[in-house]
Amino acid sequence: MWIFLDIDGVLVPDTMYERTDLPPFDPADPPFEPACRDRFETVLRHHRSALVVIASSWREIFPLSAICDRFSPDIARRVVGQTPFLAATDAANVNYLRHREVEAFLAGLGVPKAPWVAIDDIADHFRPGAPVILTDGNVGFDDRAAAALDQALYAV
Ligand SMILES: [Mg+2]
After folding, report:
1. Which residues of 27-53 are buried (b: 16+ CB within 10 A; e: fewer)?
2. By residue range, what is the domain housing residue 117?
3. How close is the Cα of 37 to the center of ligand 1, in Å?
4. Distance between Cα 53 and ligand 1 center (Å)
5. What is the pLDDT of residues 85-137, one digit of tens each?
6. What are phi and psi of 17, to 5 degrees?
7. How many domains does the chain have?
8. Which of 16, 110, 119, 129 has the most CB atoms in a 10 Å sphere around its CB?
9. CATH code for the domain in which residue 41 is found
10. What's the 11 CA to ligand 1 centre distance in angstroms?
């Protein structure tokens, strides 16, 4: 099972920048929110065959290694890549761009029908009916999202 992971609004809630209970951090280089990250990692440790692909705008800014460094080492080893960049040159093909990038990633590996789930705070990145676990961008990966991911991974 492939997990296509967004970061902003998932592991970095939009409200994290105003929090005073976290150690100070550089807003241009934020850490993952600890509770969101721990919830995500706990689910992954129960599903050892699931692999993670970064499907976030972070891949335009940070090298994959810098993203992996934010996970615990056992989980970082399971972050195996990032989705390709597809051109969004006009309004017609910007629709569902992230969904198409997921499909391009799987097609590139020769497994276009492989089961997958995406975690994202924006439904419009994916076609209706896509296997997406939606988060509230202000909250990030909460207990409800963790339960949904756990269930999605058991279903395979
Ligand atoms: Mg997002």
Report:
1. eeebebbeebbebbbebbeebeebebb
2. 2-154
3. 15
4. 14
5. 887 665 556 778 899 999 999 999 999 999 999 999 999 999 999 999 999 99
6. -70, -15
7. 1
8. 119
9. 3.40.50.1000
10. 9
